[in-house]
Amino acid sequence: MVLKTGLEIPTMMMTEAGERNVRILLVGERGVGKTSMIYSLVFEEFYEQVPPKCEEITIPPEVTPVHIPTEIVDYSAQEQTEKELVEEVKKASVICIVYSVDNEVSIDKISSYWLPYIHQTLGEDHDTPVILVGNKSDLVEYTSIDSVLPLMNQYKEIEICVECSAKKLDNLSEIFYYAQKTVLYPVTPIYYPEERDLSESCKVALKRVFKLCDLDNDGVLNDFELNQFQTFCFGSFLLSQTLDEVKYILKSIIPDGVFDNGITLSGFLFLLTFFIQRGRHELIWIVLRKFGYNNSVGFTEEYLHPEIAVPRGSTVELSPKGYSFFTALFEKFDKDGDGALCPAELSALFSICDAPPRWAAADYTSVVATTEKGWLTLQGFLSIWALTTSIELKETLKYLAQFGYMATSGEKNQISALYVTKDKRIDLSEKQTSRNVFFCRLIGPRNAGKSSFMRRFIGKTGPISNSNHNQSSSSDSIYNSYVINSIPVYGQKKYLIIKELDILNVNIPLIDPELFCDVSCLMFDQSDPRSFECVAHIYTNNFQRTKLPILFVASKGDQPAVRQSTELQPEEFCAAHKLTPLHKFSSLVGGGGGGGGGGGSGRERETKENMEVFEKLATMAAYPNLNRLVHLLLMKPSSSWMAQNMK
Predict the structure, then answer these.
(1) pTM above 0.85, yes or no
(2) What architecture does CATH give domain 197-298?
(3) How many whole angstroms separate alpha carbon 582 and alpha carbon 589?
(4) Which position among 192, 325, 455, 470 has the lowest Cβ density within 10 Å, counted as fewest Cβ atoms?
(5) Helix (H, G, I), strand (E, B) or coil at 591
(6) Residue intervals in the chain for CATH 1.10.238.10
(7) Torsion angle defined by CA atoms of residues 321, 326, 329 and 330, in that order, rounded to the nearest 10 degrees
(8) How far apart are CA 349 and CA 13, in angstroms?
């Protein structure tokens, strides 16, 4: 494309416009020449006599400029019923209201009948574009455009007003090309002609595009970033001379359009507005569609949620590419490089999206590791996305798309950022797993210390707060019932998700979703003589006949242990059922543990002992076939000895 300024921007023909075909409907008063227009277009000559209605015409894609199959549909009040007209209006991709330039009545009927009729049929806010076509321009020496032009300001769906002559074959092919173009590249959703400015939705979309392309997050697009944008959208590369020319012209028009030899957001928006004003709005649509937008400048469902097959028994987690993408995203918005996202940095990150994710509205400080100020660390950021992928896969797909995964990776969709695991039964039969995320169900009576246990897992003390940062909706609470953190398991980084379950009645069996996990932690209060009885019943009624790894944990290890009301005491119960030995835990630093001795002293040893229970759970989940061996190995004092004997 060559502009009057001499600015050259390489373009490409758009063939993926989101439409499988274009259906053009011609309506208007009797005698305005609708059928004659179609005949003249198809047969390339004018017929004095034509039937009241032309049969539907299909133009193959290879003979259309936009390479899209096109159907041309004629309407005749003489031949068709009102019901048929309604059906055709609803099916149309674009509606051409044809009038005769020498007939004032047909012009008046545009606003008095046809436009209100379309509104009545499709609704006031419909998005079907309309073209006003003045036929029989050969009969007059003046233009009718000035008389119909005010309608464009009154009816936002009117894309263009054009004149033609079916008799002289003048401007016919252009009209049908315009019709195709209004469907594939509509102006109305992206531009306000009366204001000569981009629409608000288009500005929001293009600001997102700018932020995604601003790889170093410095507020300008340098030459490398501009070429990344150009290559991704148009499949071509810009020479440095061309880029310098673009910036020189841009700076001469709007001084703030260029800064530090890069194009600013205002300059970026000006360039794209300039294209629209020069009639090249298809360029903006190429950009928008590359970044996932539909004709309403909203995200397409295919862009946000591509199909992903998850067989029964399998789970989905982030792949190495997914973790790398979120790591790079974190580092991009950690402007001060302090290893945490403060509220302003997190807000800037979410400004790329149409809205923050649901976990951001919940009290995520009680779900993942954060700084003392409650700011997300990289570990917490990766953990929350690992959790989101496990419990709300569509959310992860959505935000991978909105965060620009495809633009960064060059992939067609975001599936490569995910990993579909094998069926859990296959892992068990092969006695190994490639999974990195595991579920733990924490079960016990109320006041057993489960909430404090979960808080300790993410490096916090005290019970989980019930308050949210933003009580926007009840759906946000889904995240507040989980905690997640990374755990090393024999040199490999794994994620353990813990979900709490209160037991109110031990005689009511657990339901399948409550049993779904990789390991279960049955917790009781060792200072309460009736607490163990509850979890013993739970084990006997729900887990005894399963192969699910089970760890009994005696909480409140800082308090004196009392004899439990059951016949078998906790240690004896574990031994009798060949379970991993009982682990004693305290949420208080210095409150004791159950993992054995080891080096170190004071706070370091106490913290290690407190964290050992989580390592046990993660190990049991990752190696369910080896639980009998783990049962023996975990009793040894040296973890290095354990690792050596596991090989």
Answers:
(1) no
(2) Orthogonal Bundle (1.10)
(3) 20
(4) 470
(5) coil
(6) 197-298, 302-420
(7) -140
(8) 33
